[in-house]
Amino acid sequence: MDRFLRKYLPGASLSLIYRLVRKNVKVNGGRVGADCMLREGDAVDIFLTDEKIDGFRREKKVTGAKRQFRIVFEDENILVTDKPFGLLTHGDEREKKNTLANQVIGYLAEKGAYDPATARTFSPAPVNRLDRNTTGLVLFGKNASAVRDFNAMMRTAGDVDKFYLTIVKGALTKKLILRDRMIKDTDQNRVAVLPAESGEGKLMETVAVPLKSLGAYTLTEVRLVTGRTHQIRAHMAGAGYPVVGDAKYGDRRVNAYMEKAFGLTTQFLHACRIEINRGEGSLAYLAGSVFESELPENLKRIRDSLGRGTGNVGREPRTRNDGGSNGQGMNRK
Questions:
Q1: More confident residue, 311 or 151
Q2: How far apart are CA 255 and CA 265, in angstroms?
Q3: Domain spanning 65-155 has what CATH number?
Q4: Is 251 a catalytic residue?
Q5: Of residues 131, 159, 161, 185, which has the active-site annotation?
Q6: 157-333 falls under which CATH superfamily?
Q7: pLDDT digits (tens, 9 = 90+) for 53-88
Q8: Does pLDDT of 325 surpass 60?
Q9: Largest CB tally within 10 Å, which of 33, 175, 258, 299?
């Protein structure tokens, strides 16, 4: 209930929200607590004048954050963005305004595809998330049905495949299928990898395929079967192939070399491809779609510099013929 009111009346203070719950709000004719879980079909009565409600709602403004993302694909339901380095997907305690989510809301409001004053409790939202220093594809739902259906697809094994490009330390010569468990230390913002049979923590599965030998390193394509915090970085480091530039799980000597030689100060990790194998509900038409993003120029330079004089060592095969590009960053069957 309190979250609903905070979205519905964005100009109201938190103390006012709780006061409204106690004195001025009923659900289906009865009083409820702030932790009441609302369900579709519930009738919410707010006992305030129209003028006061309009005043609390008018304060909902669209952020003026400058657009930094590139549009890969857009239709009436979804927006696929290419997130640059250094941009948060969502806000945190240090940065609340200049985020990818706010930039997308501003872009959609400017073009008339979203009106925060009339959208009630919905805001366009991402259905996948990247760390600040991971670049690449982030997909947004532009309406409530799209967000709901895409979240369902993300939870269903095999519906959506997410691929990343990375460079790892070591000579990876064959496909790795990693199945383990992870425990997150929230205070340290770090995860520990445990054996799958340990019974502790959450299961995670990662598939890594070497693409090209880069001498002491390997250009690798990684597919996430599950989507855990820091999964690729922690899993690859646990397998003995840490991501270059990764200060949290990587090799310090390698990172020092990468910074000195190429100016790389964070992990080399790029969300390069999203494949939709099956669509749900309003997004059924997306089945067979493939969205792609090229490496940023600074990561291309590192790959090419390390790769001079080396050869390909393999690639994970695609599960279907994706056909040609339609010119908007999406391929179809």
A1: 151
A2: 7
A3: 3.30.2350.10
A4: no
A5: 131
A6: Pseudouridine synthase (3.30.2350.10)
A7: 877 776 455 555 689 999 999 999 999 999 999 999
A8: no
A9: 258
